[in-house]
């Protein structure tokens, strides 16, 4: 169900997707991929990739003279609480809005459309200023784990495959998977963050909320 990005087949899919023009967003976000520092930081780590990929200025230095995002540089974020309890899509979108991004949340329920999701993925992958993070059940893709956040960085239209930037690099690699399978994995409710009633999964669409600022070497 998941195809290793670095496999022979994964490389061929990448080549074909590149030729079709559905990998533009990969070259913005792909170089920023990080390994989540804690088991519950997959959402925040995915957001950090987008912030750095879009060259959003955090407005303060990271280390030395450099302005750069890591999980502890994200504003309006209690990282200790996230490490303990995880994060929901609404919470992640709220944090993104506090860090100069527009964020829309789409829950995959009876009112959501896989065709709309496909169009969003295509639009994102064709461009370089809109990114998609999905919240899904890993077991529905035949992988270990319960819930996960991952950024979509490519699309193969002929085969209907999406490229997921997996932040849990200690367990999984970047992979291709059928968009329809990912959709079914997003239907699964999140019973880890809220064991009592479960929380609907889905996807988030991010774009820049204001013109980019140049990162200057400051003290």
Could you give a short description of this structure?
The protein has 219 residues and is an alpha+beta fold. The chain has helices spanning 8-20, 26-29, 42-53, 79-85, 89-97, 114-126, 179-187; strands spanning 3-4, 101-107, 130-137, 147-156, 161-165, 175-178, 202-208.
- Element-level helix/strand string: EHHHHHEHEEEEHE
Instruction: Categorize the overall geometry.
Output: globular
Oligomer: single chain
**Total strands:** 7
Question: Radius of gyration, rounded?
Answer: 17 Å
The neighbouring-strand order within the major sheet is 1-6-5-4-3-7-2
Give the uncertain stretches in residue-range form.
214-219
Q: Mind describing the biggest β-sheet? A: 7 strands, antiparallel
Tell me the distance between the termini: 48 Å
**Mean pLDDT over the full residue set:** 89
Number of helices: 7
Percentage of β-strand residues: 15-25%
The percentage helix is 25-40%
